[in-house]
Write a structure and sequence with these properties.
- By secondary structure, the chain is an alpha+beta fold.
- It is built from 16 helices and 10 strands.
- It has helices at residues 13-24, 28-37, 43-50, 88-100, 126-143, 145-153, 188-208, 214-217, 254-270, 272-292, 297-308, 348-356, 362-385, 389-404, 409-418, 426-437, and strands spanning 64-72, 75-82, 106-109, 114-121, 157-165, 173-181, 220-227, 234-242, 318-323, 326-334.
- The strands form 3 sheets. A 4-stranded antiparallel beta sheet has the order 3-8-10-9. A 4-stranded antiparallel beta sheet has the order 5-6-4-7.
- Strand 9 (318-323) and strand 10 (326-334) form a beta hairpin.
- Helix 9 packs across helix 10, helix 10 crosses helix 13 (362-385) and helix 13 crosses helix 14.
- The radius of gyration is 27 Å and the shape is globular.
C-alpha cells in the first residue's frame, strides 16, 4: 500500500486523522482516541491552536511549571518554565533561593541590535559597486518609510546599512548588512519585509545606474533574510558573594567548593566535549522560559551556540572569577526576544506567562531569561562538583520510572520511602518494584 497522499493539506482535520491512523497504525481506533484525548474541550481554543501551524492533528503537551524566588536587580519574580526534563525547575528554584539570600541576580542590557542581510551576486568592479551603494544608500531608507514608520514611533527602526565584500569566499558574492532595533517585538517579519524592499531598491537602482555595464546592472538577488546570530543583542547576568557564604552545607568547605567550581567552568572553557553539555544545562533554563513566553527557542539556541563559538572553538558561555575572597559567576549571551506580536497576543498560556512576569518589556524579558539560564548552570555545577549529578536528577526522575511501570499509589509510596536514602537507578527501582509486587 502506498504511503503517499495527494491533497493532504486540503483534507479536513477528521479526514487527515482517518488517513494517518488507517495507513500507519494497526489499531486505528485506539490511535484516534489517543489523538483526541489531547484536544481542548473549548472548541474555539482548539481552533486557535489548530491554526498556529499546518496539518494539525492534536496538541502536544509539555509540563508548564514555575520557579519562584528569583530576585533580579532587586525585583522578585516567579518564572514560568515549559519543559519535559525532570529536575530542571527544581534546580532553578533552588539556585534562585540560594542567590536571593545573597543579593540576587544582577543583569545589564549591553545592546539590542539585530541583523538582516541581502545576499547578492554582482559581476563587475567592486569600486564601482561601492560608489553606487554610497550614492543610493539613502534610497533604502526612503523606500522603506511606510514599513518603518510605526516602528520608528516606538523608538526603533533601521540603524544602519553597509555593503560587505565577500568575494574572497564566493566569487561575485556581496551583502547588504543591515542592523535594526525592533523594541519589544522579536522583529523577524519587520526585518524581512525591510530586507526584501532593500533587494528591490538595489535591483531597480542598478538598472538605472549609468556607470554600470549591462552585466553590472543585472545584480542577482540570492536571498533576503534576517540572521538569528545577534552578537550585538546582548545581556549580562551575574551573581557574587564572599567565598565564606558560598556553601550552605556544613559538610562542604566553601573555599574548596569555590575552587572546584571554578575549575569545572575552566574545563568547559577549554574542552568542547564538556562545553556542549555545560551549555546544554544553561539552555535547559533558557529554552524553558523562552518556550513559556511564546518566543522562538530554535532561533535562540542557534544564536547562542554560534556565540559560544565566536573565538573559533566552542566554549563555555559562563565564567567565574575569584578575587579578594569574592566569588563571581557570570555570562553574557545574545537573546533576540519579543513581548508583543506573534504568539504573545494569541496563546492563552503565553499571555498568562507575561502577566505572571509583570508584562515585561523585551529588554526585561532578556534579563529574566538570562537569570534562569545562569541559575540552572549554577545548580548543575554545584551538583557535579559536590554530590554528583545523578543523586538529585535520578530522584526527580523516579516518578517517571514508576509511571512507566504503571505503579499504583501504594507502590509509589513504598518505592519513594525505600529510595529516600538509597541511590536511585532505573534497574534498582524496577527490581524493588517487582519485589514488592511478588
Amino acid at each position: 500500500m502506498t504511503q503517499n497522499v495527494k491533497g493532504f493539506s486540503k483534507l479536513s482535520k477528521e479526514e487527515k486523522i482517518n488517513w494517518i491512523t488507517s495507513t500507519y497504525f494497526s489499531n486505528s481506533e485506539e490511535a484516534k482516541i489517543n489523538l483526541k484525548k489531547y484536544w481542548n474541550s473549548d472548541e474555539n481554543l482548539q481552533k486557535l491552536h489548530d491554526e498556529f501551524i499546518e496539518n494539525t492533528l492534536t496538541n502536544f503537551y509539555l509540563p508548564y511549571g514555575v520557579a519562584p524566588n528569583f530576585t533580579i536587580n532587586g525585583k522578585s519574580y516567579t518564572i514560568p518554565m515549559a519543559i519535559e526534563e525532570s529536575s530542571v525547575v527544581a534546580a532553578a528554584s533552588k539556585a534562585a533561593k540560594f542567590w536571593g539570600e545573597r543579593g540576587g541576580f544582577k543583569t545589564t542590557i549591553i545592546n539590542t541590535e539585530k541583523i538582516g542581510q541581502v545576499h547578492f551576486l554582482f559581476n563587475g568592479n567592486t569600486e564601482k559597486l561601492t560608489a553606487f551603494f554610497n550614492k543610493i544608500k539613502s534610497s533604502f531608507l526612503n523606500d522603506t518609510q511606510e514599513i518603518t514608520k510605526n516602528m520608528q514611533k516606538r523608538g526603533g527602526g533601521i540603524l544602519d546599512i553597509e555593503l560587505r565584500d565577500k568575494t574572497h569566499e564566493i566569487p561575485n558574492y556581496y551583502q547588504l548588512h543591515a542592523t535594526f532595533n525592533t523594541k519589544d517585538s522579536m522583529g523577524a517579519n519587520f526585518i524581512n519585509t525591510c530586507l526584501e524592499q532593500f533587494a528591490k531598491t538595489l535591483e531597480n537602482q542598478a538598472q538605472e545606474y549609468s556607470d554600470f555595464t549591462s552585466d553590472e546592472k543585472n545584480i542577482q538577488i540570492i536571498m533576503s533574510i534576517l540572521s538569528n546570530y545577534v552578537p550585538n543583542c546582548l545581556v549580562r547576568v551575574e551573581v557574587s558573594c564572599p567565598i565564606n557564604q558560598l556553601s550552605d552545607d556544613k559538610n562542604i568547605d566553601s573555599t574548596e567548593f569555590a575552587q572546584k567550581f571554578a575549575t569545572a567552568v575552566r574545563i568547559a572553557e577549554v574542552e568542547p566535549f564538556r562545553a556542549v553539555t555545560h551549555n546544554k544545562g544553561i539552555m535547559n533554563g533558557i529554552d524553558a522560559v523562552v518556550l513559556a513566553t511564546g518566543n522562538d527557542f530554535r532561533a535562540v539556541e542557534a544564536g547562542i551556540h554560534a556565540y559560544a563559538s565566536k573565538s573559533g572553538q566552542y566554549s563555555s558561555l559562563s565564567h567565574v572569577k575569584i578575587e579578594n575572597d569574592i566569588f563571581t559567576f557570570w555570562m553574557e549571551i545574545p537573546l533576540a526576544l519579543g513581548t508583543v506580536g506573534g504568539l504573545t497576543s494569541l496563546h492563552p498560556l503565553v499571555k498568562f506567562s507575561m502577566e505572571l512576569l509583570g508584562k515585561p518589556s523585551a529588554e526585561e524579558l532578556m534579563q529574566i531569561v538570562a537569570a534562569a539560564g545562569l541559575a540552572q548552570n549554577f545548580a548543575a555545577l554545584r551538583s557535579l562538583t559536590t554530590t554528583g549529578i545523578q543523586q538529585g536528577h535520578m530522584k526527580m526522575h523516579l516518578m517517571n520510572i514508576l509511571n512507566q511501570h504503571h505503579a499504583t499509589k501504594e507502590e509509589k509510596q513504598k518505592v519513594l520511602d525505600y529510595f529516600k536514602d538509597t541511590t536511585v537507578s532505573h534497574s534498582l527501582v524496577v527490581d524493588y518494584l517487582e519485589k514488592i509486587r511478588s
